[in-house]
């Protein structure tokens, strides 16, 4: 029998968790309006954001002169720029550019979502959640709420509903992985459902995995497939993954015909993973009639997702193409798999090695506007080399 004091503590914890859950649910049960300027956020939220970015839990923990400076609304490298405002994307401030910039904020009577991008952090924008407590605003993680990450690549552009839906998805991931909170499969499921019901493809596919594995709920393969199918309509990558599930009999009885149809569809939608997978099927004659021409074509379309490695092996062994060890070497050493896969030993003469190195340099000398090696350049260099053989 529990000690009365222990029972009281447990009851308080349960009540606290119930209140927290209700407060968080209320956050998403109302409409949001968009905020693009820091000055349009409640002052105490602005202060909490500044304190958070200085590694403090409360604004009062900051030095007095810094509190005065922030309250004045002035901007320097310690400040936070408005959406579209001056911002230093590097690791150090330049002039009056801020090291932190507002990506977007959304405010409702119950809560505020704030996404920030940080100088030098090109892969993520920090998401903060603030909840109303009486007449005041408090940081969401007071209620063990996570600080998640919104997707950010170079420039964040979105509409308000997408922003809120993405926040819901990120909260699902935070509870799944225990980022800022204790792992909680039930809470994770709740937030993924909110995002998935708004058409978030990644959340839909994640729900498929959740129901297939029984995380936070009972296993239900029928429901899992429903979510997998919905996700497949939003993104060719998920159509490819669903095709693999059918072909390999993961979660469901194997159905090669249905799986192959989905993989082919995803490949036709220019999904590189589907193209490599389908190319390997044609190369090995597995589930389809062996066809080197189709395999080569698919590998050339997906050079940087495994296609270059597979194409190299075709030239190494002479499958569907004239065997050419120089081409094989140039393709293999330039493939993404070069650093982590055990590559076949290729015995080249000194002259062949010199040719292979030159060919690789020619292949890697073509760059896209983004600065990456251009796949078309690789194929151009390959074609020019073969034309002169």
Walk me through this protein's architecture:
The protein contains 15 helices and seven strands. It has about 400 residues and is an alpha+beta fold. Helix 5 crosses helix 6 and helix 6 packs antiparallel against helix 7. The N terminus is likely disordered.
Give the gist of this structure:
The chain contains 15 helices and seven strands. By secondary structure, the chain is α+β, with helices and mostly antiparallel strands.
What are the main properties of this structure?
389 residues, 7-stranded mixed beta sheet, disordered N terminus, flat, 7 strands, alpha+beta, single chain
The global form is flat
Largest sheet, in brief, is:
7 strands, mixed
Helix/strand/pairing category: alpha+beta
User: Strand-and-helix sequence, N→C?
Assistant: HEHHEEEEEEHHHHHHHHHHHH
Number of helices: 15
| Fraction of residues in helix | 40-55%
According to DSSP, the number of beta strands is 7
Taking all Cα atoms into account, the compactness measure Rg is 27 Å
Distance between the termini: 87 Å
Determine the strand fraction and express it as a percent band: 5-15%
Low-pLDDT stretches = 1-21
Give the overall average pLDDT. Answer: 82
């Amino acid at each position: 029998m529990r000690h009365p004091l222990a029972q009281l503590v447990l009851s308080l914890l349960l009540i606290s968790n119930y209140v927290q859950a209700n407060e968080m649910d209320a956050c998403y049960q109302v409409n949001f309006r968009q905020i693009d300027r820091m000055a349009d956020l409640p002052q105490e939220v602005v202060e909490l954001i500044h304190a958070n970015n200085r590694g403090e839990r409360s604004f009062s923990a900051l030095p007095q002169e810094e509190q005065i400076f922030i309250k004045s609304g002035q901007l320097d490298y310690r400040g936070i720029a408005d959406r579209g405002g001056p911002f230093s994307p590097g690791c150090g401030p330049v002039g009056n550019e801020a090291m932190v910039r507002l990506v977007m904020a959304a405010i409702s009577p119950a809560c505020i979502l704030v996404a920030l991008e940080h100088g030098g952090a090109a892969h993520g924008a920090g998401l903060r959640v603030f909840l109303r407590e009486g007449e005041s605003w408090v940081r969401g993680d007071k209620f063990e709420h996570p600080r998640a990450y919104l997707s950010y690549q170079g420039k964040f552009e979105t509409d308000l509903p997408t922003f809120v839906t993405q926040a819901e998805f990120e909260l699902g991931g935070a509870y799944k992985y225990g980022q800022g909170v204790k792992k909680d499969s039930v809470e994770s499921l709740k937030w993924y459902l909110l995002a998935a019901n708004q058409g978030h493809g990644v959340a839909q596919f994640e729900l498929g995995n959740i129901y297939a594995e029984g995380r936070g709920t009972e296993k239900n393969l029928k429901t899992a497939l429903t979510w997998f199918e919905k996700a497949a309509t939003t993104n060719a990558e998920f159509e490819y993954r669903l095709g693999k599930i059918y072909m390999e009999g993961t979660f469901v009885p194997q159905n090669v015909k249905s799986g192959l149809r989905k993989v082919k569809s995803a490949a036709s939608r220019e999904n590189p993973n589907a193209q490599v997978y389908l190319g390997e099927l044609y190369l090995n004659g597995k589930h389809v009639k062996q066809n080197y021409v189709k395999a080569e074509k698919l590998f050339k379309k997906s050079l940087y997702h495994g296609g270059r490695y597979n194409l190299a092996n075709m030239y190494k062994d002479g499958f569907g193409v004239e065997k050419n060890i120089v081409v094989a070497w140039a393709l293999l050493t330039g493939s993404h798999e070069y650093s982590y896969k055990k590559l076949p030993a290729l015995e080249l003469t000194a002259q062949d090695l010199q040719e292979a190195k030159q060919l690789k340099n020619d292949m890697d000398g073509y760059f896209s506007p983004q600065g990456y090696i251009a796949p078309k350049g690789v194929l151009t260099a390959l074609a020019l080399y073969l034309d002169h053989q």
